[in-house]
TrEMBL record:
Pfam families per UniProt: DAO (PF01266)
UniProt protein name: FAD-dependent oxidoreductase domain-containing protein 1
Cellular component terms per the entry's GO annotation: cytoplasm
PANTHER family assigned: FAD-DEPENDENT OXIDOREDUCTASE DOMAIN-CONTAINING PROTEIN 1, SARCOSINE DEHYDROGENASE-RELATED
GO molecular function, one term: oxidoreductase activity
Keywords in alphabetical order: Oxidoreductase
Stated role: Required for the assembly of the mitochondrial membrane respiratory chain NADH dehydrogenase (Complex I). Involved in mid-late stages of complex I assembly.
InterPro entries for this protein: FAD-dep_OxRdtase, FAD/NAD-bd_sf
Source superkingdom: Eukaryota
Length: 460
């Protein structure tokens, strides 16, 4: 009986004949029968058009001659990426931690991308929402300040320009901030931020330039419903979506954010593959104040407690929240940035609420109150007074219980790769992740050790 790969040996991209009704006969090893589906072939099929999927596509396009398809059940920015605050900071990352090298490499690659935009005669602010504001991790207690002083030493030893700002220096840098007796800040002047929507649009546009060469195609509003294994190797030969069957010659990559756990569970359910990807959604609210002139920031800010907030289940002043919130492990930690359009963006909450993306007004109130503790001007303003300029952004961060993304091949399915679970750092770690995935697929030497991110031992 023929194996899937022998059905269309001369398939070429974008040729009129490559889209046809096709019957895929069941082989001994393939578990799914694909009948009556539009069929196209690519070297690499990427599922998920968030920042991770799109930057992986970009890296294949600029770093190899492979053809790439990107599939999404909706559109780019419909997942966590569209909600992201946009900071690419190192100030809250810990030298020597398992994600440090990946974060540093990504930091360098983002800088290079912004530079290449400049080299093309374009403005990184306009194209990417790129702003090198520097970042401040702000302490308010003596104990926090001591921790930040040590952090500054660590960051400096790791090669980053970092300094500890005393209360008086902090006041000069950020006059709108309430600075008490024990306040201080870790300052990383080279930290930058971007606008996720602008950056995604820029990357998509650049990727699409490869369409005319037959190397790139997008399949949006087309959810993946199964994977098709082919041949005796058990490799994934194709991905079946609701509208298409996308054959993959080299690799299938799942960059499906917080959906990766449930999706992979469904896809391998009836196979012998044992895979349990523990990625789950961690909901976050952001409050955006458009054309808000009452407060101006010179830098991006984050409260020192954010470092724990990202990984742990720190509780806020729970009395202000509904009793049922306790089960959600709700936490709110102050982050404040000005985006490329001059809007004030205040964050952020974390909670486990399944795939629910509805606005919770009590959380918005809590974000506002928390910001008011840092910025006295905000505490003077009732939330109801700013309803005309108030927007709320909600996203589901892809949470991994051990705090690291999962990046690598699935054992037993050698051409199936996962790249998910970046939680609150997917924008900042995207370019390093993309480089790592492409190097793995192409068998190239890695710039960053991928062992901490392996699928084996964490998902199977
Ligand atoms: C409030 C908030 C603030 C944040 N701020 C920052 C920040 O400042 N800096 C930072 O680095 N990170 C930040 N993050 C985290 C960052 O946004 C995420 O880590 C990142 O966007 C994850 O990207 P992704 O591509 O993995 O996932 P997503 O953007 O969620 O993309 C996954 C895609 O997979 C698609 N998909 C799912 N299932 C299927 C299917 N069956 N078929 C086809 N497609 C499918 C979805 O439609 C989606 O488009 C923030 C997140 C939130 C929520």
């Amino acid at each position: 009986m023929a194996s899937a790969s022998t059905f269309c040996p001369n398939q070429t991209l974008n040729s009129p004949g490559n889209c046809f009704l096709y019957q895929w006969k069941k082989t001994r090893s393939s578990r799914t029968e694909v009948v009556g589906s539009s069929y196209q072939a690519f070297d690499v099929v990427i599922i998920g058009a968030g920042i991770i999927g799109l930057t992986i596509a970009r890296q294949f396009l600029i770093g190899s001659n492979l053809s790439v398809a990107v599939v999404d059940k909706a559109v780019p920015c419909s997942g966590a990426t569209g909600a992201g605050q946009g900071y690419l900071w190192m100030v809250h990352k810990t030298p020597g931690s398992e994600t440090w090298e990946l974060a540093m490499r990504s930091h360098t690659l983002w800088e290079m991308l912004a530079e290449s935009v400049r080299d093309q005669g374009l403005n990184p602010l306009a194209e990417l929402g790129w702003r090198k504001t520097g970042s401040l991790l702000v302490s308010r207690t003596h104990a926090e300040s001591d921790i930040l002083k040590k952090r500054v030493t660590q960051l400096s030893e790791a090669g980053l320009e970092a300094e500890y700002l005393s209360r008086d220096d902090l006041r000069k840098e950020e006059p709108a901030l309430s600075v008490g007796g024990d306040s201080g800040a870790a300052f990383v002047p080279s930290d930058s931020q971007l606008d996720a929507q602008r950056t995604v649009a820029f990357i998509e546009k650049a990727n699409r330039q490869f369409s005319s060469k037959g190397r790139y195609a997008e399949f949006y509003h087309d959810p993946v419903k199964c994977i098709v294994r082919s041949g005796s190797s058990g490799e994934v030969g194709a991905v079946q979506t609701f509208m298409n069957t996308l054959h993959s010659r080299k690799a299938v990559i799942f960059a499906t954010g917080c959906w990766t756990g449930s999706l992979m569970h469904d896809l391998v359910r009836s196979s012998e593959i044992e895979l349990d990807v523990p990625v789950r959604p961690r909901k976050g609210h952001l409050l955006v104040l458009e054309n808000f002139n009452s407060l101006k920031l010179n830098h991006g800010l984050m409260e020192a407690g954010y470092v724990n907030h990202q990984t742990a289940t720190l509780r806020p002043s729970i009395s202000e929240l509904e009793p049922s919130d306790e089960g959600r492990n709700l936490s709110v930690s102050m982050t404040a940035t000005m985006d490329a359009a001059g809007n004030l963006v205040l964050g952020s909450s974390r909670e486990f609420a399944g795939f629910n993306t509805e606005v919770d007004d009590s959380i918005i109130k809590h974000i506002w109150q928390r910001a008011g503790e840092f910025f006295p001007k905000l505490s003077e303003l009732p939330l109801s007074d700013i309803s005309n300029c108030k927007k709320v952004r909600i996203g589901l961060r892809p949470y991994m219980p051990d705090g690291k993304p999962v990046i690598g091949a699935v054992p037993g399915l050698s051409n199936l790769f996962l790249a998910a679970g970046h939680e609150g750092g997917g924008l900042s770690m995207a370019l390093g992740t993309a480089e790592m995935v492409v190097d793995m697929v192409l068998g190239q030497p890695r710039k960053v050790d991928n062992a901490p991110f392996a699928v084996q031992g964490r998902c199977c």
